[in-house]
Every structure is written in structure tokens, then in C-alpha cells.
């Protein structure tokens, strides 16, 4: 066996696996190069290494949607995603949706429709809404309900969340990037 397998072999002792892996991400438009542990989730990288705390850790099992971010324009649960698998990806968090002081249309609709209470789930709700509007599959309120079913709100702000997403959908600009 070769020593590169990490197992003892005829050609010498096993070699240790590297403790960190270099990756490059484009996060909210800025290139980030870093060395990370291979078990680091994208959520933990964003919150702990890049100080982007808008993305929330809810259940840490992919069941609540509080950690939803956009990767290459598609919504994902960042708590279930190892950061090393996203090397080279474009990541957009809630902090990256606005353009300066100008809110993204979905953010503006959430404010206008009072689509939050405690606000804990709001970043994930908004990122998920932007992603679903980009997908172009939401043609009705029922579609929005179904497509947002992975994002939970413990406060029960669903009617206002639905109204905000529907407003952005009807205006036709909710999936845009500013």
C-alpha cells in the first residue's frame, strides 16, 4: 500500500491527512481565501470565520431554514453543507442582498408587509424567497406556501411572509440581484 493512503505500507509510515484545506469563495461579492478544517459547515464558516451573523443557526439539522443562503444563486441550508464542497462558489447571505442603503425588493417587501416578529428566521426566509423567485416556479400563493415549506417561523408570521413574497413576485423583481 502507498503511504498516501494513510495506511502503513511497504514504502514507509502512513502520512497524516492535512489538517486544513485551502478554499476560495466569493462571499457577497468579495473574494475570500482561507484554510479551513474539512468538517467546517458553510454556516459555521460564515458566522464564525467571516463574522456574517445574519445567517442563523436554528436546528443545525436542515429542518428549520434559518440558515438558508444562496450558493450560485440557489438556496441551500448552510448547516448541512461542508464549506470545502463549495470551493469556488458564489455565496450570498442576507448581508449581501442590499445594495448599500437600498434594500433588495424582497427585503423591502418584508418591511412593508411587516413580515417578521422576533426576526430570528427572517434572514433565512428572505434568502429562500429570493431563491424561489429566481427559480420562477412560484405562480400562486399555494406555490409560494409549498416552496417556502422548509422555512419555519416560530412566531407564526406566515400570512405576512406570504404577502411579502407575493408582492415581490407580482412586481417581478424579487429574484433580482441589486
Any overview of this molecule?
There is one protein chain. The chain is elongated. The chain folds into 2 domains: 21-96, Beta-grasp domain (Ubiquitin-like (UB roll), Roll); 105-171, DNA polymerase, domain 1, CATH 1.10.150. Mean pLDDT is 91; it is low at 1-6. It has a 5-stranded mixed beta sheet, with helices on one face. The protein has 5 helices and 5 strands, in the order ββαβββαααα. It is α+β, with helices and mostly antiparallel strands. Helices cover 29% and strands 14% of the residues. Strand 1 (21-27) and strand 2 (30-36) form a beta hairpin. The protein has helices at 42-49, 105-112, 122-135, 141-147, 158-171, and strands at 21-27, 30-36, 68-71, 74-77, 90-92.
Keywords:
Ubiquitin-like (UB roll); 5 strands; elongated; alpha+beta; DNA polymerase, domain 1
Summarize this entry quickly.
The chain is built from 5 helices and 5 strands; from the N terminus they run ββαβββαααα. With 178 residues, the chain is α+β, with helices and mostly antiparallel strands. Strand 3 and strand 4 (74-77) form a beta hairpin.
General shape: elongated
Q: Cα distance, first to last residue?
A: 54 Å
The strand count comes to 5
Give a quick account of the main beta sheet: strands, pairing sense, barrel closure: 5 strands, mixed
Low-confidence stretches: 1-6
Q: Structural class, please?
A: alpha+beta
Amino acid at each position: 500500500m502507498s503511504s498516501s493512503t494513510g495506511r502503513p505500507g511497504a514504502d514507509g509510515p502512513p502520512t497524516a491527512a492535512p489538517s486544513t484545506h485551502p478554499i476560495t469563495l466569493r462571499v457577497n461579492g468579495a473574494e475570500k481565501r482561507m484554510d479551513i478544517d474539512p468538517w467546517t459547515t458553510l454556516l459555521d464558516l460564515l458566522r464564525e470565520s467571516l463574522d456574517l451573523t445574519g445567517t442563523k443557526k436554528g436546528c443545525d439539522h436542515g429542518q428549520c431554514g434559518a440558515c438558508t443562503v444562496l450558493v450560485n444563486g440557489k438556496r441551500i441550508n448552510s448547516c448541512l453543507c461542508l464549506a470545502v464542497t463549495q470551493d469556488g462558489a458564489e455565496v450570498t447571505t442576507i448581508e449581501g442582498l442590499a445594495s448599500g442603503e437600498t434594500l433588495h425588493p424582497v427585503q423591502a417587501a418584508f418591511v412593508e408587509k411587516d413580515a417578521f416578529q422576533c426576526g430570528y428566521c427572517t434572514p433565512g426566509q428572505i434568502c429562500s424567497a429570493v431563491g424561489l423567485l429566481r427559480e420562477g416556479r412560484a405562480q400562486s400563493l399555494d406555490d409560494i406556501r409549498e416552496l417556502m415549506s422548509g422555512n419555519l417561523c416560530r412566531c407564526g408570521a406566515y400570512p405576512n411572509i406570504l404577502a411579502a413574497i407575493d408582492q415581490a413576485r407580482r412586481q417581478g423583481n424579487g429574484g433580482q440581484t441589486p
